[in-house]
Amino acid sequence: MSVFTQKPAVFQADVILHAFDWPYHKVTEEAERIAQLGYQSVLISPPMKSPDEEKWWMRYQPQDYRVIDNPLGNTLDFIAMIEALKQQKIKIYMDVVFNHMANESYLRSDLNYPNQTILAQYQAQPEHYEQLRLFGDLSQPLFTKIDFEAAFPIKNWLDAKEVQTGRLSGSDTDPGLPTLAPTDNVIKQQQHYICALKKLGVNGFRIDAAKHLSAQHIEKVWTPNICADVRVFGEIITDGGVGSAEYEIFLQPFVKHTSFDAYDFPLFHSILNVFEHNTSMKSLLSVAENGQCLAPDRAITFAVTHDIPNNDIFRNQLMSPQHEQLAYCYLLGACDGSPLIYTDLNTSNDYDSLGHPRWMRSWYDNNLVKMIHFYKHVHGEPIHVLACGNELLVLLRGSIEAAKGIVAINKSNEEFQVNLPVAQYSVLLGGDDLLSQHTLTIPAQSGLMLMA
Fold first, then answer.
1. Exactly one of 64, 69, 104, 208 is catalytic; which is it?
2. N or C terminus of the chain with fewer C-beta within 10 Å?
3. What is the pLDDT of residues 206-234, one digit of tens each?
4. What is the tens place of the pLDDT at every residue in 296-310?
5. Domain 16-378, CATH
6. Cβ atoms of residues 298 and 266 within 8 Å
7. Which of 147, 235, 246, 261 is catalytic?
8. How far apart are CA 111 and CA 99, in angstroms?
9. Nearest to residue 403, comparing CAs of 423, 380, 433?
10. Contact 20, 343 (CB under 8 A)
11. 383-451, what's its fold?
């Protein structure tokens, strides 16, 4: 596989708000505030025809690419959202689901998409659906049975061919999600879809479940022309970096043979081990040399993704609220990847200590907004270690002679004090009383940020 896109010589800061399962009108309404808080782009759930059900995972079961019509809104709502974000100079990224189509085995035995009922709706309301049409002839199916792989469930998750041709299914009795084959028609329709969305103003695409797409499929769809002027990044879930079988089989080839960006699961697991499994903070100084992170210009960094709180099999990777904040302090203070900030409308049914839905308000939390400001201020600056131990990490961004900022993280239950290089500092994150002359007090279980 060899896929190339143009990338800037110097990568730019890009703080991404993952507005997970937000209706398009909510993104439209919040566009101005999103910009004011410092976000530079928004990632939204897949815009397409999908089942009219409230369950979030139904957004990942495509019925038709040619129409946007789902519980989050329709094509007209989508266009209004893009215009609102464009006015605020906010880029829009969106999920694309190219591995499979919706599991409709309970309705029918054929593999025509969309199904006959939906095609009849198109014909019954031609003017309405013409307004929603992105491309193509709505009187004909998008896909038929010749566009799918043979039906069998994935059982060996370390067999690349099986993972990329088998079906995602919940059990031996679940027929699963029909897996698309890279036929000429599939490639053509997926490219038409991308081009139509680019024409509307979409700036980037997140390839959902990218490990399930073969190298051949990716190379055929994502040509240089298709990728021009947009950011493309893949979601390839692994349990670590170099030394992890999932990394070696799926993520490493994706990174090596494409120029696409990717979710930095190796770094995530390094952070998770530090804050939830008592690994030393010292390990974070060697993630790059040990192959436990992606290159910063290609890394989508995160403390939580939508799968972690919303899928039972991933909830063991959920950090405590306090540790999640410390993780963001590290990601926004010490890393130059593109941080993905997760928010939802309480799909997970998790609550914070005050009884509020945990991720509904977190995206505009005052401390997080300060971290975003710090990230944009120090992005790309050199890193110097001022102090590091099993429980403590203090880093200077910039040069010792001309510091830009300092980030300090203490995960222990005791406070620390460190001496700082001589400079004028102001406390951005934390209390002003923690800085006396050039001595910084770092309270237990806290993250601090100073501007120089």
1. 208
2. N
3. 999 999 999 999 999 999 999 999 999 99
4. 999 999 999 999 999
5. 3.20.20.80
6. no
7. 235
8. 15
9. 423
10. yes
11. Immunoglobulin-like (2.60.40)
